[in-house]
Specification:
The structure is a homotetramer.
Chain A (H helix, E strand, L loop, with lengths): L5 H23 L9 E5 L5 E4 L15 E4 L19 H10 L5 E4 L3 H9 L8 H7 L5 E2 L8 H10 L6 E4 L3 E6 L2 H23 L8 H14 L13
Parallel strand pairs in A: 5-6
Antiparallel strand pairs in A: 1-2, 1-4, 2-3, 4-7, 6-7
Helix pairs in contact in A: 1-6, 2-5, 3-6, 4-6, 4-7
């Protein structure tokens, strides 16, 4: 049995529980079908992350079934869940953790409306204030890239580095989201589908009213700094 | 511990319970995601209202977590929930209570179809009888206004004062609804999304048949006076 | 306490239970919001029907809250539920029972897609085999008519008399459905929304392929005669 | 009581349980309404399959209510459930089992978006990677055929033989899916509706970006061979 010392083991246990539980949010909001979609979370203080097993039903996602990987995406042998294969998107998650040290959580889904924008390779314009709050501007499109090497991970990192958005729509594929932790990345996955749906519906009925960049900036700054009870924001709250 | 005398305390307890419970209607009807949306209710007989805390999960909305505010939107210290920040929309709710004394409840969501109309700045035409019943005509658009001062509250009040509609679509933002009490405002939030969806779908498939103003007036008058068991209407039922 | 003799009382109790329970199908399939929509059922062997009270929550629809009416829509005094007002659509249900003796159940909703067709006053063309099975052709539009006299009931009866369809879309209003009993009418309400949605979506993406009348006739005849376990069909099964 | 020897009886019991349980996936994903839709599963090692009874509520689909048929679709007398009529689509299922020996499960629904494509007789283009993974290309259209002889079964078999897709959209009717077993066919039914919806929405908003055939081939090969925990794939996993 591989062991990492008591402090890291506690952190692993917490991330396993979070990642297992947070998959329930993907089904609650209808972002996934069957065994699709995956959530991962970085283990604070270690070069490790926890991810969903491949092709396993959402009803079986207990903490001990989650899989512990190193930052190359290799399963840590002798740990709970290690007898199973990790999500087929593990390489993309690992690439993000290796290259974006501020990221503590990654989520991937094929949620309907976000994937529809991705199938056209079209970024989602920022025309609702909730989108300015959460993403600070449009949701960008990432390159076409298929499973098998680092190209998906590289596409995510290149698109999101220096971008306010925590969500990228990989062309012809679907959304990947990042966050300070797994919960924050799941929130971004929920919100990107919500704005993808609202803006899709708004635009099919007529011309959209843009929001001025200055207003977008003010909304984004305010939301990142003062909204909520200061537990999920990417930056520390002001007090 | 702040206290308001036994009668007001009973009223506060009742509004806390109502407001907490009514948030469940927002999730039941799919009007909100994550921690978005908020319901408030005026405390009858006092210059107080009860509102949801900011950024807290819908699973944790017990009565004692609701926050008691004065009509300037300031949290009443030493009351249950006062250790948390109130909804980031509290200033808008407070402005409505200060300026529309007949209003006993306010609801805000980013419900999908209503927000889609708001992103185009387009009022919803009254082409179904249920809409004539409930809103007495079109659902109006309010101005673009962002969080940070009274401009959202002022936009709501200016749009709805003297208007039959209990719902306003704030441009690029989403619906705010008012009512005789919190339940009535929640009903308006549910109904505005319902009509926003139906009219959106109707219109995308071809031209709508208008309803004559005279018929709208008769439907609205009848519904406000005789529908239901006379507990939620804005005016006393004829009995 | 009004009494109708033991046999009729047993029948009333059964219809009360059916009508109360069947309202749950309206919420299960998302056909109604808040207190909207209503189901009624004729009491076999008596000039009576049972209907939902007006403006009462779907969580409170127990059999003893259902309201017993005569075929003029007058509440039978001294019976369970008679202290409440019946559905505001009671007059329309009563008109149907008086004028269509073969009808044992009536349902009304404002279900989204069916109401969208109604807002354009456009019948739903029969382009899917499930619709040929269930309705035998297009779903017709009924006249614009508002609450207050017999005009809604008359519009339903005039449109459906001699028509295969058990559903009519009342213009600018929504669907009414009829059936051999309350369950059969509820099934028609579920199916009319289902076909309204499918045909709406089909048509917005391109031209529909019509089904030949001869094929529609064969599908309808077969389904009415042999489908299912012979408990819900309008006509007796062949053996 | 008909008996098939202990080994076959064990297999029958397992397929009954699977088929009964898997109907719950059709309602979970909203693919069916009322009593519509049906799942069947072949009994390994015997010329038998298990299918849903006709016109029975999804709440009553216990294993002992499922119906055992031979490969001509005739009910095996004296077995549990044999007092009921099997699904009205039994002849089509039987035709598939007789003519496609590799097929172990068949599913039929009228799921909304898939049926909408079927009403236009238009195949679903392969523009999302999940579709390349699962179906290896477009979802084909089958001929118009109505119940009453072998034409539906023949249409399914002729369309899917030699095709990568496990789903066919029967024109003006709806999807039929096949799989290595009942679960695999249900997965295909869930996925075909998911891609039908996503591609419908994508295309109504603008031009789609095609995926190169070479990329589709690589995605399909990889997914069929390495995805998941090697329990549902049509072909044996590589190790």
């Amino acid at each position: 049995m591989t062991s990492f010392g008591p402090q890291i083991e506690v952190a692993i246990a917490r991330v396993r529980a979070d990642v297992a539980r947070l998959h329930g949010e993907l089904t609650r909001y209808g972002l996934v079908v069957w065994t699709g979609g995956n959530v991962s979370g970085r283990v604070p203080g270690a070069d490790l992350f926890v991810i969903k097993p491949s092709g396993v039903s959402y009803d079986e996602l207990a903490p001990e079934n989650m899989i512990l990987c190193d930052l190359d995406g290799a399963v840590i042998p002798g740990t709970p869940g290690s007898e199973r294969a990790p999500s087929s998107d593990t390489a993309a998650h690992a690439y993000v953790y290796r290259n974006m040290p501020e990221v503590g959580g990654v989520v991937h889904t094929h949620s309907t409306y976000a994937t529809a924008w991705a199938a056209r390779g079209e970024e989602i314009p920022c025309v609702i204030t909730a989108m300015a709050d959460e993403f600070g501007g449009p949701i960008p499109i990432g390159p076409f890239a298929i499973i098998g090497d680092d190209s998906i991970g590289r596409g995510i990192v290149e698109t999101l580095t220096g971008h306010r958005s925590r969500a990228v729509l990989m062309q012809n594929h679907g959304p990947f989201t990042i966050g300070a932790n797994a919960k924050d990345a799941v929130k971004a996955a929920v919100m990107v589908e919500d704005v993808a749906r609202t803006v899709h519906l708004a635009r099919e009925a007529g011309p959209l009213i843009p929001i001025a960049q200055e207003a977008i900036d003010r909304l984004y700054d305010r939301y990142q700094n003062v909204y909520g009870q200061s537990i999920d924001s990417r930056r520390p709250a002001p007090n």
